Fold:
Amino acid sequence: MASGDVETWFVDTNVLVYANMAQAPLHAVALMRLQEVARVRYFQRRFQVADETAVVTARLLTLLRTIPAGGAQIHDANIVATMQAYGIQRLLTENVADFARFSGVITIVPLVVHDSSPPAPPA
Structure:
């Protein structure tokens, strides 16, 4: 999955759904963001699945000892554990808030970048 000289990303499922549904409100944004991901031609030919293995489970248990999560947050923690097990640092997702608790261990790349700067004064 990860190699020393190739930049790898974990793409949240919601981004793939948006990119493949023309009627989705974030379709164009998802397509554009996927095109920015390194090795996009390879991605388009096939998906490489980061399987849940015993290593992932061990990482999840370790992660939960340091970053508490419960309920639906366990799914997000499992994604982060999978990323760690495969040496993937970047997560492309629309659900930035869901992964904020893990920002110390992964890089969260928002699907949509919101400009938080104040509006320019009127001319």
